[in-house]
Design goal:
Helix content is 14%, strand content 36%. It has eleven helices and 41 strands. The radius of gyration is 29 Å and the shape is elongated.
C-alpha cells in the first residue's frame, strides 16, 4: 500500500519503500524521503491512514532521548511537516506571537531536560528528511504547546479499584479527550511507546505526530496521566510558567520515582508545588490502587492543590474528573453519568469502563492494570467522520521482549529439516518469540543472518544446500513477514543454496547483502553483493562480482565487518567445504569510489585459521574486544574429524594476529564434530563487546545446539546454551543475532 498524501505536506521527494513490523492489524509501508544519517531507533508497529492522512499510527522508539526524538520524527516526518503547515495556516499572522510565547514558557524548570533532547532529535531528523522546510525547535514547541495555547472545552476521566475490581485486575482507568477538529492532523492519532535506555522510564503517549509532551499518557507502573481544562483562560500566562502539557509528561516519566507506587503522587507534587503554571488545569495522576490524585494549577497560583480519593465518596475507591471543581467528597458537575455507573455497585470490567465514555471524544484510552508492565491498553480516535478501530494491546506488545536482543536460528542441512527460522530472546532462559518457514519446500534447513537491508534490522535467509534448491535469498521483517521486493536468486543455478551476510560496504545508508554459492561440486567461490533499490527490488552492487579463491568448486562462506576501522565494512571470505580446501580466510576492500568500482584483496588479510588442509572455514565479523573495530571470528569447516574450535583474529594495523584468550572449544572435543557455525555481529549483553553465538556443525548425530559466549578481553566464557529445535532435528544449527525487536511473545 502506498503512503497517502497528507493535507499540507510538502511535495514528495524520491522515496524508499520500507517494511514495518505488525502486531494487530494490517501491513503498511512507510515512505522515507532519504536514508537516515543515524540509526533509526524506532519501528512502526501498525499504521492505517486514508488519503487525507486521517487514521492512526502505533510506533515504538528506544535509546537516548535524542535518539527517540530522532526516530519519532524520522518515521513520521511527512505528518509532522503537514501539521506544522496546518498550524501556520490556522494561526496566520499570530504564528510568530505563539512562537515567542513558547520560547518564553518553561518546559522543564528544575527538572531533567529530556524534552529538549527529544525535540532536538526531531529537528535533526526533519532537517534530513525535509531540509527545505527548516523546521526548528520552536516550531516543534508550537506543535507540542497546542494543549496550552488552545483549550479543549471538556474532558472526562474515571478510575476505580478496591471494591470495584477483582483479581487479577487491580485498577481500571479511562480518559476521554473532548475536542473539535481545528486542523486535519488532529485526526491522525499516534500511540507512541517510548523506551529510554538510561534515564526515565518506559511510557506510552496518545497524541499526534511530533508530540513529546503529555496529553494522555501511561507509564510502566500503570499510572495514567491526562489534562482537563479548569480556569484555563483566567489570568495572564506567566512569562516563564511551566506548560501543563510538559508537567503531565514529567510526572508520567519522572526518572526519580521510587519503586513503591504509594510515594509517587507525593514525589511529583513536591516537584511541582509552588512552580508557576502557564495554563490553568486539572492534571489527572491516576496511580493504581488509589495512590493517585488530581493536581490543580492556575496562572495566578501555580500548582496549588491536590485532590485525593475520599473514603466518604464510594469508600475511597473511585476518582472522577470533569471540568468543574470538587474536593473529592461529591460529584463534580458534568460527571454525574460516571457517578451513576458506580452507584450501581458490583465488579467493573474493562469493557464497561470503556463503553461508559461513549464515542464522542477526540480520543480515548482505557487501561486494565494487573501489575507493573502487566496491563491491557485500549485506544481509539475520532476521524470525523467515523472512528479508528479500537486498538487493543498488552504492554509487552508495544515494547517487545523485555530481554531485548534476539538470537535467530536456522535448521542444519539435513534432508528432513524444514526451513523453520526461529527467534529466541538472548537470555539465560531463552524464550521462543517467533518462527516462520523461510521457503516452501521442507528440506535442508536454511542459512540465516541479520542486517539492515533497508532502514530496519531484518532477518536475511539463504536457501539450504540441497541439490534441488537454487540460490534464493529472502528478507523478513522482525515478525517474520516477507519483504516481498527483497526476494531474489543470487546466481544462475538451481542447486546447493546460498550463503548470506550483511554489511555496509559502500558507506551509504543501510547494509548490502553479501552472497556466496552453496557447497556444490561445480560452483566456485563467486562473491556478489546486492542492495535495496529504493523499494523496487534487490540490485547488484556495481563492482562486487569476483572469485575469492583459485578454484571452481564448493562455493564460499562470506561475512562483512569493519576490520580496518575506516568506517565501513570489508568483505571477509572463508573457503568452501571441499575435501582439498584448507581454512583459508581472506579480506577484501570494496573500492566504491573507484573508476571503475572494484574489489581489491586486503594486503595482509590472508591466512589459514587452522592447521589443516580440508573442508574450508566458517567466518563472521564483530567487535568482540570493544575497541571500535571489528575482528574476525572463525569456526572449522564441516569435516568429520573437526571439533567446534572457535578462534578470534585481530586485523588492526593490516596484519592478522590471534586475539589473546579467544581460542576455545564450544563443545568438548569429540562431543560435537563437523566444525561450528559462528556469528559475532551483535552485542547481546550491553557490555560494549560483540558476543559469540555458536551453532553445532552439520554432525548427523548432533541435535540443534546453540551456545553463546562472552569475551572479556582475556578469555571467552559460556553465557548460556539451548536446543533450538525439537528432538529428532539433526545436523546442527545455523545462527545469527541482532536487536530485531519482535513485538509479540508467543
Amino acid at each position: 500500500m502506498s503512503q497517502p498524501r497528507v493535507a499540507g505536506a510538502p511535495d514528495r521527494k524520491p522515496s524508499h519503500r520500507l517494511p514495518v513490523a505488525i502486531i494487530l492489524c494490517t501491513l503498511f509501508a512507510i515512505s522515507l524521503a532519504a536514508p537516515p544519517a543515524a540509526a533509526v531507533n524506532g519501528v512502526i508497529l501498525d499504521q492505517q491512514l486514508d488519503a487525507e492522512g486521517k487514521g492512526y499510527t502505533v510506533l515504538h522508539v528506544w535509546g537516548s532521548h535524542q535518539e527517540m526524538g530522532y526516530a519519532h520524527a524520522y518515521l513520521l516526518a511527512e505528518h509532522i511537516v503537514a501539521q506544522h503547515h496546518q498550524l501556520v495556516d490556522l494561526l496566520g499572522s499570530g504564528y510568530d506571537t505563539v512562537r515567542q510565547a513558547m520560547d518564553a514558557a518553561s518546559w522543564s524548570p528544575g527538572m531533567p531536560v529530556f524534552l529538549e533532547d527529544e525535540l532536538n532529535g526531531m529537528v535533526e531528523a526533519l532537517a534530513e528528511r525535509y531540509p527545505d522546510e527548516e523546521i526548528d525547535n520552536l516550531d516543534l514547541k508550537v506543535i507540542n504547546g497546542y494543549g496550552d495555547w488552545s483549550y479543549p472545552p471538556a474532558c472526562r476521566s474515571h478510575s476505580c479499584w478496591g471494591q470495584f475490581v477483582e483479581d487479577p485486575v487491580r485498577t481500571l482507568s479511562t480518559r476521554r479527550l473532548d475536542f473539535g477538529n481545528p486542523f486535519p492532523q488532529i485526526n491522525h492519532h499516534v500511540l507512541c511507546a517510548w523506551e529510554p535506555n538510561y534515564t526515565g522510564m518506559a511510557w506510552v503517549g496518545l497524541a499526534w505526530p511530533g508530540y513529546v509532551v503529555g496529553i494522555t499518557t501511561l507509564n510502566s507502573f500503570g499510572t495514567q496521566a491526562s489534562l482537563h481544562d479548569y480556569n484555563s483562560t483566567a489570568g495572564v500566562p506567566p512569562a516563564d510558567g511551566l506548560l501543563r502539557t510538559a508537567a503531565a509528561r514529567y510526572i508520567t516519566s519522572n526518572p526519580y520515582l521510587s519503586s513503591s507506587i504509594s510515594n509517587h503522587l507525593d514525589q511529583c507534587w513536591d516537584a511541582l508545588e509552588e512552580i508557576d503554571a502557564w495554563t490553568g488545569s486539572f492534571i489527572n495522576y491516576f496511580v493504581p490502587e488509589g495512590y493517585g490524585g488530581v493536581i490543580t494549577c492556575s496562572r495566578d497560583q501555580g500548582f496549588y492543590d491536590v485532590r485525593t480519593p475520599q473514603f466518604s465518596y464510594f469508600g475511597g475507591d473511585v476518582l472522577l474528573t470533569a471540568n468543574a471543581w470538587t474536593d473529592g467528597t461529591y460529584t463534580p458537575a458534568g460527571a454525574e453519568f460516571m457517578a451513576d455507573y458506580y452507584d450501581l455497585g458490583g465488579i467493573k470490567d474493562l469493557e464497561s469502563h470503556w463503553s461508559l465514555m461513549g464515542t464522542g471524544g477526540l480520543h480515548k484510552m482505557s487501561v486494565e492494570y494487573r501489575d507493573r508492565e502487566d496491563m491491557t491498553i485500549w485506544v481509539q480516535g475520532r476521524l470525523d467522520p467515523g472512528l479508528t478501530p479500537r486498538l487493543e494491546y498488552e504492554w509487552n506488545e508495544l515494547f517487545g521482549s523485555n530481554d531485548g536482543p534476539i538470537i535467530v536460528t536456522g535448521p542444519g542441512p539435513a534432508y528432513d529439516n524444514p526451513t523453520s527460522v526461529r527467534l529466541y530472546t538472548a537470555s539465560p532462559d531463552p524464550i521462543l518469540v517467533d518462527q516462520f518457514a523461510a521457503y516452501y519446500a521442507p528440506h535442508y534447513g536454511a542459512n540465516v543472518t541479520t542486517g539492515q537491508a533497508d532502514v530496519f534490522e531484518n532477518i536475511i535467509t539463504g536457501a539450504g544446500p540441497g541439490d534441488i534448491y537454487g540460490p534464493h535469498v529472502r528478507v523478513f521483517d522482525p515478525n517474520g513477514a516477507p519483504v516481498t521486493y527483497l526476494s531474489f536468486m543470487a546466481y544462475g543455478t538451481h542447486k546447493w543454496g546460498v550463503n548470506v551476510a550483511a554489511g555496509d560496504i559502500d558507506n551509504e545508508w543501510g547494509e548490502e547483502i553479501i552472497t556466496g554459492p552453496g557447497p556444490g561440486a561445480v560452483f566456485g567461490p563467486h562473491v556478489r553483493a546486492f542492495h535495496d533499490g529504493g523499494g523496487t527490488g534487490a540490485f547488484p552492487v556495481e563492482g562486487v562480482n569476483f572469485m575469492a579463491y583459485g578454484t571452481h568448486k564448493w562455493g564460499v562462506n562470506v561475512a562483512a565487518g569493519d576490520i580496518d576501522g575506516d568506517g565501513w565494512a570489508e568483505i571477509v571470505t572463508g573457503a568452501g567445504p571441499g575435501a582439498v580446501f584448507g581454512p583459508h580466510v581472506r579480506g577484501w576492500n570494496y573500492i566504491f569510489n573507484g573508476n571503475p568500482k572494484r574489489v581489491d584483496p586486503i594486503p595482509g588479510v590472508s591466512f589459514m585459521a587452522y592447521g589443516t588442509n580440508k573442508f574450508g572455514v566458517e567466518v563472521t565479523c564483530g567487535d568482540v574486544d570493544g575497541d571500535g573495530i571489528d575482528e574476525i571470528v572463525t569456526g572449522p569447516g564441516p569435516g568429520a574429524i573437526f571439533s567446534a574450535h572457535v578462534r578470534g583474529w585481530n586485523c588492526d594495523g593490516g596484519q592478522v594476529t590471534p586475539i589473546p584468550g579467544l581460542s576455545f572449544f564450544a563443545w568438548p572435543p569429540g562431543e560435537a564434530r563437523y566444525g561450528a557455525e559462528v556469528f559475532a555481529k551483535a552485542d547481546l549483553n550491553d557490555d560494549g563487546r560483540a558476543d559469540i553465538v555458536v551453532g553445532g556443525g552439520p554432525d548427523p548425530n548432533l541435535g540443534s545446539p546453540v551456545r553463546v559466549f562472552e569475551y572479556d578481553g582475556q578469555q571467552a566464557t559460556l553465557w548460556f546454551s539451548f536446543e533450538a529445535y525439537p528432538e529428532g532435528w539433526t545436523h546442527g544449527t545455523k545462527v545469527a543475532a541482532g536487536r530485531l525487536l519482535p513485538m509479540s511473545l508467543r
